[in-house]
């Protein structure tokens, strides 16, 4: 099964990481994979563009099916391999409703974290405006406060006690927050969630290799 899957990915990309966590949880190790470089612009290479014409990581194929959107890929994998590995959609209607709500709310983190990071990394210092940076910070602060409130009410995972699709899809962005300096003391519930899952087998096995060899940033320490 896994031999029919191909993943072209970049280290540190949450969408790529989501798919890799999912494949581990569904016991689909042994898939074809190739680690490519953002710095070398490999995401614009013909190899990637042939599979993902948007020129982005991930580029993911299962047999004849191309699923480059990480939400689509993870939902497809859960449906195709529901009896294999970890069951990631709970039976409880209440837990299911909460899982779907949180997993799609994760798109707000996926929008607001890169917004502030890209502004700092790509906009030349002399062209940055304090007011614009503050707007990005305020938006992300409000977002993280929401997740702090949510996580104060749960039993370790986003939809309760069980590790679900919501955790597969949201955890990589929570990890990115701490990689970029989020203050654990200011957000203890978010920190507890992060620390409770970072050593989970599927997450540890797929931890971005560049994160293991390079220091994080403190760009979010004032969030």
Automatic annotation (TrEMBL):
<dbReference type="InterPro" id="IPR040079">
    <property type="entry name" value="Glutathione_S-Trfase"/>
</dbReference>
<dbReference type="InterPro" id="IPR004046">
    <property type="entry name" value="GST_C"/>
</dbReference>
<comment type="similarity">
    <text>Belongs to the GST superfamily.</text>
</comment>
<dbReference type="InterPro" id="IPR036282">
    <property type="entry name" value="Glutathione-S-Trfase_C_sf"/>
</dbReference>
<dbReference type="InterPro" id="IPR004045">
    <property type="entry name" value="Glutathione_S-Trfase_N"/>
</dbReference>
<dbReference type="InterPro" id="IPR010987">
    <property type="entry name" value="Glutathione-S-Trfase_C-like"/>
</dbReference>
<dbReference type="Pfam" id="PF13409">
    <property type="entry name" value="GST_N_2"/>
</dbReference>
<dbReference type="InterPro" id="IPR036249">
    <property type="entry name" value="Thioredoxin-like_sf"/>
</dbReference>
<dbReference type="Pfam" id="PF00043">
    <property type="entry name" value="GST_C"/>
</dbReference>
<feature type="domain" description="GST N-terminal">
    <location>
        <begin position="3"/>
        <end position="85"/>
    </location>
</feature>
<feature type="domain" description="GST C-terminal">
    <location>
        <begin position="94"/>
        <end position="216"/>
    </location>
</feature>
<protein>
    <submittedName>
        <fullName>Glutathione S-transferase A-like</fullName>
    </submittedName>
</protein>
């Amino acid at each position: 099964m896994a031999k029919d899957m191909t993943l072209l990915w970049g280290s540190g990309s949450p969408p790529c990481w989501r798919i890799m966590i999912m494949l581990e949880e569904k016991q689909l190790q042994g898939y074809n994979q190739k680690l490519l470089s953002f710095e070398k612009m490999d995401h614009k290479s013909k190899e990637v563009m042939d599979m993902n014409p948007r020129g982005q990581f991930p580029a993911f194929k299962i047999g004849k099916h191309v699923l480059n959107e990480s939400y689509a890929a993870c939902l497809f994998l859960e449906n195709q391999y529901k009896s294999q590995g970890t069951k990631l959609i709970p039976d409880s209607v209440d837990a299911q409703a909460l899982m779907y709500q949180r997993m799609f709310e994760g798109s707000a983190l996926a929008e607001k974290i890169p917004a502030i990071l890209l502004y700092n990394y790509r906009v030349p210092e002399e062209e940055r405006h304090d007011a614009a940076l503050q707007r990005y910070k305020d938006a992300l602060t409000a977002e993280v406060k929401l997740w702090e409130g949510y996580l104060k009410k749960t039993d370790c995972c986003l939809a309760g006690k069980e590790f679900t699709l919501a955790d597969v899809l949201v955890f990589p962005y929570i990890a990115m927050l701490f990689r970029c300096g989020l203050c654990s003391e200011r957000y203890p519930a978010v920190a507890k969630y992060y620390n409770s899952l970072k050593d989970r087998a599927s997450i540890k096995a797929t931890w971005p290799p560049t994160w293991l060899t390079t220091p994080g940033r403190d760009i979010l320490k004032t969030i």
